Amino acid sequence: MRSNLLAAPAEHSEPLIVDCRSGACAPRADSVALRQDVTVDDLLRLASDPRWMLSRSAHDALVDFARSSHRSGALLLRSLPVGRIGPTPAAPTATTTKDRVSELTLLAAARRLGEPVGYEPEHGGDLVQNIVPTAGATERQVSTSSKVELMFHTEAAFHPHRPRYLLLLCLRGDPTARTTLCSIHEVLPFLDEQVVDVLFEPRFRTAVDESYLDGRGNVLGPPMPVLTGDRHAPSMVFDADLTVGTDAAADDARHALAAAVRERCTSVVLEAGDLLVIDNLAAVHGRSPFAPRFDGSDRWLQRTFVVGDLAPSAAERRGRVITTAFGE
Ligand SMILES: O=C(O)CCC(=O)C(=O)O
Ligand SMILES: [Fe+2]
């Protein structure tokens, strides 16, 4: 195990870690990904071809994770190809000088888990998004922030078509930025039975992220439970910043959950070639603060969202871009 995984007490479950150095990627795919004119659709077609594989170890780890998630709700694949990247862009959609190897790696991994999708308000619905610190967002609760802690969240907790998996591929690491993680399986044994009872009831509302509202103020989603499914192995949808209780007992329960998550969490410092896959039904994630430089050497991740099935979002989707409108 590498030393950059934070030393957590032994009983805290860390992501399942698989080193993928062994087993080469298909050169045919790599050479396509070196061309500048290749589109995301081309890459997705290639990534979907079962004859084009990630290394055998990466492929098998992803398929196993999709079949039965790990107790930590996370899988960390190391030493994946990211290609030639050039300087970190100043904004997610700014032009870069990179080749397309990292996009192909990410989409190939995503296709082993389900269907990659974008969300219109998230970088225009891009299937692969650059997550870089931006000068305008240093202190905000968004993925492009840096100087503040990004609080624990289910990705798009407020969204009826929220992703089933979230994939973060590191192109350039920052040794001081820790991606934080905590699964429901980790905290459940430490919550009072009465708190768990309340978390299973539809007594919580999650605010819609401001980027989905075009400046239309504060919109709360419908009352929902935080926990659903099997009492002993539930799914969790929770945002420590945006989820509130609809009554005092529910609010106490969400504070108890947030405290347990803070206490039981683990973290990982992502390095170039690391792919962190998060089961968005099992684990919440966040990020520690770090110092941005805005000189082309900052931390750079690429992110892809995956749903298990495209059908439920059919009426609110254009191609692979989910267009659900909120607060209208
Ligand atoms: O920067 C990170 O490690 C995580 C950011 C995050 O929450 C996201 O991209 O969804
Ligand atoms: Fe996130």
Q: What is this structure's SSE topology?
A:
Blueprint: E1 16-19, H1 27-33, H2 40-48, H3 56-67, E2 74-78, H4 101-113, E3 115-119, E4 129-131, E5 150-153, E6 165-172, E7 179-183, H5 184-187, H6 193-199, E8 204-206, E9 227-230, E10 233-236, E11 243-245, H7 248-264, E12 266-268, E13 275-279, E14 283-287, E15 300-307, E16 317-318, E17 321-322
Parallel strand pairs: 1-2, 3-17
Antiparallel strand pairs: 2-13, 3-15, 4-15, 5-14, 6-13, 6-15, 7-12, 7-14, 8-11, 9-10, 16-17
The structure holds 2-oxoglutaric acid (AKG) and fe (ii) ion.
Residues 143, 153, 155, 285 line the site of fe (ii) ion.
For this entry, give a set of tags.
binds fe (ii) ion, alpha+beta, 328 residues, nine-stranded mixed sheet, disordered N terminus, binds 2-oxoglutaric acid, globular, 7 helices
